[in-house]
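Kindly review this record before class:
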Amino acid sequence: MATPAVRMFRKLEGLFCVYKPSGVHWKLVRDSIETNLLKGLDATPSQPLSHEVRFLAHPSPETGASKRLTVSAASVPVLSKHPLATGPEFQHIRVGVGHRLDAFSSGVLVLAIGNGNKALNDFYRTRVSRDYTLEGEFGTATDNFAHTGRVVERSTYDHITQDKLERVLAMLEGVNQKALLMYSNIDMRSQEAYQMAVEGLLGPEGKSAPILTGLRCIRFQPPNFTLEVQCLNETQKYLRKVVHEIGLELRSTAVCKGVRRTRDGHFTMQDALTHHHWTAGDVMQAIQLYHSTKKSKKPSKAAVKTPALQTSEENITDTQQNEMNEGVAR
């Protein structure tokens, strides 16, 4: 019969997502969650110890010159199966990581436990797009396209308007749409291509160069601006380079101040567990929610952000970000 810890582990098998703070390596996030899950599993009540029958000797008091030995049968616990002798029932859990985020990026990070690692492999092979918000600043260029890099150039940006920025974004989006069709390896005049485009499933076959399926400006306050990006096969370094190239197209320079993933497939910011909820109970609840909704959910399209998603992002303030960074570091 399965122990309480094993029954609990079976409920933990599946996919879930967490919010990875900026400045924290994804390996530290994974290790923190694995430690919390092991603590939760080992804290479950252990099964009562099994008993065995043993014959216990009881020497009788001396009566004259004779000595007698009395034997009685007794049921005693099998101490070799005590948790103090066998150790924790679970000493390692395989926690898989989906599309990774580098140390200076934040946002949705998909994880898997147990049999969920197979679903994670399937998740990798599907043509799901991801959403990001990119914080940029005009007037500066660095050697690594991020604000933490070494400054290599400074320039003016007074001539940049929102209309000029949006024209550059439209041009980049058009170029990437052509690349998407080229990498799709499907006849664009066929009914299959039309159906896949309607369902948002049109995408490259296998690995391809990064493709931006959507790009728009959601905040313009020079020198600062914020972009919303939908993409495939991207890296965070590539997204920072996009901000840099936008600055060059506008006859200026630009540096990326922040990269935040807001959606990975059908996992969104609303589904992401913050650091204070990286416990076995909260993870179990998130996985059960995933199992209950995965049949009804279709692959997410590269769509415009909903107000609920925007509100969820705004709720993560700089103070909360710093608290999460300090909590994970501990």
The longest strand covers residues 211-221. The mean pLDDT is 83.
